[in-house]
């Protein structure tokens, strides 16, 4: 009986240590996932900037072409 009483606190301390180790492992895993998500976000942000730049170039080109067509149409009307 006396030995059981001595073992219970030891078992409880061991369980607490195991629980804390598990929490630390979960925190490490969470940090790794967070770092991966930040890396993904940075990549997506870069791709978005590239697509926006391409869109602006395309928009500018289309506006230029439209202006040329309007100018040509006006010249044809004046003739």
What does this structure look like?
There is one protein chain. By secondary structure, the protein is mainly α. The chain contains one helix and no strands. The protein has one helix at 2-78. The longest helix is centred in the middle third of the chain and has 77 residues, at 2-78.
Element layout with pairings:
Blueprint: H1 2-78
Keywords:
mainly alpha, 1 helix, 79 residues
Number of helices: 1
What would you call the shape?
rod-shaped
What low-confidence regions span 5 or more consecutive residues with pLDDT below 50? none
Query: What percent of the residues sit in helical stretches (DSSP H or I)?
Result: over 70%
Termini, distance in Å? 115 Å
Order of helices and strands: H
**Beta-strand fraction estimate:** under 5%
Say how many strands there are.
Answer: 0
Rg over CA atoms: 34 Å
- Tell me about the biggest sheet? none
Structural class of the secondary elements?
mainly alpha
Average pLDDT level: 93
Keywords: Coiled coil
Coiled coil: 14-68
């Amino acid at each position: 009986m006396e030995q059981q009483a001595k073992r219970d606190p030891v078992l409880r301390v061991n369980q607490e240590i195991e629980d804390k180790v598990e929490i630390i492992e979960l925190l490490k895993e969470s940090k790794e996932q967070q770092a991966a998500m930040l890396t993904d976000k940075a990549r997506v942000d870069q791709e978005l900037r590239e697509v926006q730049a391409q869109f602006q170039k395309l928009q500018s080109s289309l506006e230029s072409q439209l202006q040329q067509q309007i100018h040509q149409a006006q010249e044809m009307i004046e003739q």
